[in-house]
Amino acid sequence: MRLWFKRFQGLRIEEVVFLVFLVPSILITLRANYYFYTNPHERSVKIEGGLWRIGITILLLIVFYWFLWYRPDKRMFKFIRDIAPFLFAILIYTNLHDTIHFVNPQDVHFQLNAIDEWMFGGVSPTVWAEQFYRPWLTDWLSLAYMNYFWITVILVLVLYFKKEHRQFRTVMLTMILCYYGGYLLYILFPAAPPRLALANLYTINIYKGTSLLSDSAQALVHISASSARGAFPSLHCAITFLTLGMAWRFHKGLFWPFLPIGISLIIATVYLRHHYVIDIIAGFFLCVVAWHVTPFLDSWWRNRQMKHGIITKSPPVLAPGRTE
Fold first, then answer.
1. Which of 55, 79, 103 is the last residue of a domain?
2. Range of the domain at 199
3. CA-wise closest residue to 12 among 289, 310, 243, 242
4. How would residue 1 be classed by pLDDT, with cut points 50, 70 and 90?
5. Are 49 and 163 contained in the same domain?
6. Do 175 and 48 share a structural domain?
7. Counting C-beta atoms within 10 Å of the first and last residue's C-beta, which end of the chain has fewer, N or C?
8. Is 171 within 8 Å of 151 (Cβ atoms)?
9. Per the structure, how many domains does the chain have?
């Protein structure tokens, strides 16, 4: 037990957070699959496939920690260790996104829409936006919405290969904790996106007359089951706000080409009926909280490790306002 406790203390904070979220993710997935097993007249291929995803996650977890404990000096593993927590966060999301309703069935999407209508004079912004629909605009915003992930990847890869390791880990850790904060809010405030919750209010098929690009985007977001509850907050917007902020902070040369993509993505969340405006606001505040909490958590965990002789003094992630 002492050996395992020491190994646990030697983990990075993002690796600890992953283990904390992995256990309930497994239990939620098992609970959802048990429901479909005991109700054979109902099916959800997406949720039933979660057992395979959990199995793959556990297998990758075993390989990861074997290298961590027995081959930590392998050069390639050092890079893998830097990016693996992000990949694990995405794996957890793929299951959590579709099983939330088995944990908390108290949907709040109609309350979110009511807040939107209160802010916008009794009109739902996703319905109001119908007047601006154009095939070319739908294509562009679909492209922006699909590719938000890549601006983040470009930023972290540039920092990594420029050997700006403190900046790299600051971005990665903040982003990972932002994701997990979003997952927690998904569970506390389950909400279906407007395209599902408000489907009866729309009079226009926004994908009519668009290109194959928009059709692909539509197919991608509809992979999730109709019971998906991942609207509040908008993690697309939260990570976009975070990427733009970190680009401005660490690499202004990337900020300006990222900016039109980021603005387009934020508009796309409403235009394409993926989110309520309040989701965007919540995503912004989630980004701000993660930005300020991350350095505190990292320093707290590192101080504990140094106190127990697990690690020697090493530079933590950068505090807000610092660039090096």
1. 103
2. 106-324
3. 310
4. low
5. no
6. no
7. N
8. no
9. 2
